Each structure stands twice: as structure tokens, then as C-alpha cells.
Amino acid sequence: MPNPWDLGTARVLAQIGFPAIATTSSGLAWSMGRQDNNVTLDETVRHLHAVAQTVDVPVNADFTNGFAIMPADVSNNVAAAVTTGVAGLSIEDSTYDDASPLFEFELAVDRIRGARRAIDESRTGVLLTARSEGFIVGRPDLAETIRRLTAYAEAGADCLYAPGLREKDDISALVRAVAPKPVNVLVGSDFTTVAELAALGVRRISVGGALARAAWGSFLYAAQEIAEHGTFGRLAGAVPFPVLNRRFDPSA
Fold this sequence. Notes:
Low-confidence stretches: none
CATH architecture: Alpha-Beta Barrel
Structural class: alpha/beta
Helix content: 40-55%
Number of helices: 10
Strand order of the largest sheet: 1-2-3-4-5-6-7
Order of helices and strands: HEHHEHEHEHEHEHEHH
Number of strands: 7
Largest sheet: 7 strands, parallel
Shape: globular
Number of domains: 1
Mean pLDDT: 97
CATH superfamily: Phosphoenolpyruvate-binding domains
Strand content: 5-15%
Oligomer: single chain
Distance between the termini: 24 Å
Radius of gyration: 19 Å
């Protein structure tokens, strides 16, 4: 389930044949010239609607931390998101406060309950993913991550996700702890393969902002070469103009 960041990348990923795609908060923010977590609720909802209407495959929404603290507010915001046509939606337990980067346990669980309630009341059937962010916010505690995700599953999450898990034993432990509910693993580098994760029992893989970072890498290195050396070597690897145009041919 790769992560596009605009309509063009969403269309191409669907054309390539991926059965589902997911938005990325970081990729969207960078495309708008901002840091991650600096896109508003309204901007995100508009983006979700645009992507969902552009492709014929299911779209999972990176809905960050629900754009709120209290469960009732998370519920209200999720109610807005599920009107966009997305097939799934994730809520994370990050506070974006370096001093206390995770919501307190009971509040975090109640926030998932609030999201679950909004989805149930909408009758949309949107799949709810609960994310625990300890491994990417400086709190890499496997036992606490499993405690949280197990509680989120009991609170109504359909899929569980701990971005930052990389060790096979850790991933296997999480899969066993929340079974039979599925686990999503984030892959942002070449530390594993689809086959290896499938063998561990992982049911879904996403790449977060990694495709956006790869694209930005090509852009930045090519631009820096021109600016610093006056040469154009990196442009040799660019996708040919006709190839891109064919990707977006409405008659194709």
C-alpha cells in the first residue's frame, strides 16, 4: 500500500497495479512547502477527497493524530474525513510535544474509541487503523507499544501499526499479540522485503513518506548539481517526456 502525495503520483501508483494506496502527511506537507504536521484539518480533508475521487482503488487516509486532543473532537474530525470517499483511516497517539510525545494511555485509548464511534455512526465501513508512535518519537519500548496496540484493538481498531519497528522478533511479537487483527509495517528503507514480512504474518505494508523522499532526492541532487557545478549529469536519469505524458493520457 504505497503512499502518493498528490494526484499525479496517486494515479501512477494505481496504474502500476497496487491494490490500494495511502496518503502521507509528510509527503503532502512537503509538496506544499511545509514541514510535516503543518497541514490543517480542512486542507487534509480536501486532499483526501481529491485523491479518493482520482483513483479507482481503495485509499487509506493518514489522518495523523486526528487533528485534536480530546476524544469527542477526534470523533468530530473523523466524521468529516469519512465523507471524502476514503476506504480507511489511521489515528496515531503522537502529541507532537517533544517533552511528552505520546498521549497518556487512557486518553489514547479513548481517542480510538472516539474514532470508532464516528465511523460506526457514519455507516461507511471505513477501516480504522490505530498507530502507536513510540519507536519514531524517542520512546522505543516494545512492551508499551504492544500494550497500547492491544488496547487500541479492543477499543475498535481494525488494523494495528507501530511505525519504526524493524527487527523481525519485534514484528513477530506484535503480530502474535494482536492476532487475528492485521498488522501494518512501515518500510522506509531496504531493511526487508515483502516476502519476508509476509512470512512474519504482516498483512499490510506502507512506505510513508519514503517515495516522496526518493522523488525529492532526485530533484534536490539534480538541482544542486546545476547550481554548484554547472553540469546536468543527473538529468540523464529523468523519466522521458513521452513516458510521463502517456501516463496521464485520458484516452489510454
